[in-house]
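Q: Predict the bound structure with nicotinamide-adenine-dinucleotide.
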Amino acid sequence: MVAAVPSVPIDRVAVVGAGLVGASWAVVFARAGLAVQVHDAEPAQLPRARACIEASLRALEGAGLLREAVAEVLGRIGFHDTLPAALAGAQYVQESIIESLPAKRELFAAMDRAAGGSAILASSTSAFATSSFAADLAGRGRCLVAHPVNPPHLVPFVEVSGAPFTDEAAVRDTIALMARVGQSPINVRREIHGFVLNRLQWTLLAEAYRMVAEGVASAEDIDRAVRDGLGRRWAFMGPFEVGDLNAPDGLADYLGRFGPTIEKIADSRRGAPLRLDPAVTAALHAQLRARWPDSAREQRLLERDRRLLALSAHLSPVAAPDVAPDAVPSSARIKVSKSPKKMEIPT
Ligand SMILES: NC(=O)c1ccc[n+]([C@@H]2O[C@H](COP(=O)([O-])OP(=O)(O)OC[C@H]3O[C@@H](n4cnc5c(N)ncnc54)[C@H](O)[C@@H]3O)[C@@H](O)[C@H]2O)c1
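A: Predicted complex:
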């Protein structure tokens, strides 16, 4: 067993796997002032990753979200053909290779051999539990998941999830590192399939899929409900905060009013496991292609990142100016008539 990870400030990190997510992680760490060593098993990927990192830094600069010159940030990032060269001196490693369990197992074994004794080894995996790829390693105490949202340099959320064998110090230091580099970390306190974010995302997607299959609404209208409805608030507050403001006496009042309906909707799906139907999936896909042909994909990705950048600038405490508090009529100033404590939507 490798000794417990010491709580020292982390200023040297490695990123292993320089695809979409790895290149974005390099931006996150380097813009925060850390030295970053990038490695990819495919040597031709390194210049592509460098170009992508530079483009991301230029976009951040253009939005007023970079404190230094692009060249200065880029100068902190090194690119390496071999794993040991990238891991040399690294105090924290962010693995971001393809989502394959055998590949992650093999790589974590190699990283455990090559990394310095106190380095934390973190995976960007979207779904694999730490115990599924690190349980047999001598250094398993320093292994964990730090799952980002793509692209992490524009979406700050990270969920840190260790196995029962992961040292508490490794979890604590990873959360501290993420907060220090400007991310928004949470601790997933026990191993659970899909972690927190994807369980929420895919629970919503499952209900959306069922409603399309049942003819309740079109895919376009369900996208509209989230984009123009739920998502407007979700960009800056979570579902508990939303509930807390949606009833005069806060969350308990909200759950008191809508609890029976929430329970009824949850119960209506109990005992009916979701099975994706190839015919429904094909119809859904066709609806989306009718809205956006494949040829528009590149442009839509650029547009997504442009909007994420604008949203980051809007939500950043240092960038866009806020609207003056009295420029918008506040619903908090509207007198609320207290309605009956229990409300149900008639079925
Ligand atoms: N794309 C997303 O939306 C997203 C979001 C959150 C987390 N993730 C997770 O991040 C990880 C990376 O995803 P991605 O979308 O960046 O994938 P990607 O395919 O864009 O990049 C993976 C990179 O890893 C390299 N690679 C493969 N095996 C390697 C090895 N053994 N050593 C070094 N490099 C290797 C590949 O050459 C490639 O450049 C996955 O685990 C994924 O589940 C992805």
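A: Strands lie at 12-16, 35-39, 77-80, 92-95, 120-123, 143-148, 157-162, 184-187.
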